[in-house]
Amino acid sequence: MADVIPEVEGSEYGPGGGKIIFENERVRVTEVGLAAGKRSKLHTHDLDYMLIQIEGDKIAVEPHPETAGEYKEFFEVDVEPGAFVFMQKGGVETAVNTGKKKWREICIELKK
Fold first, then answer.
1. pLDDT at residue number 2
2. Is domain 12-110 annotated with CATH 2.60.120.10?
3. Fewer CB within 10 Å, N- or C-terminus of the chain?
4. pTM score
């Protein structure tokens, strides 16, 4: 887990856009999506979170050089609706829809 969350100029906190669909003192749930070929805003994950894939075919992550997240290199994955993953805070990145279909997922941020 990242002890220090990097402050990267131009980065926003949270999942990089989207629409908050639920929030309380314990969680923030955001639906995020990108059209084929589009990129998210540079964003910093300052909370642990879970991602649940909804639709799409390919999605990639382009980590910022100052990321404190687990992934340091660009990577692409196949989208599998219903698949989920837990991620620790600290990542600074841009999501890139490298597929041919619209991509959507749910991001559940865990507040302290």
1. 60
2. yes
3. C
4. 0.91
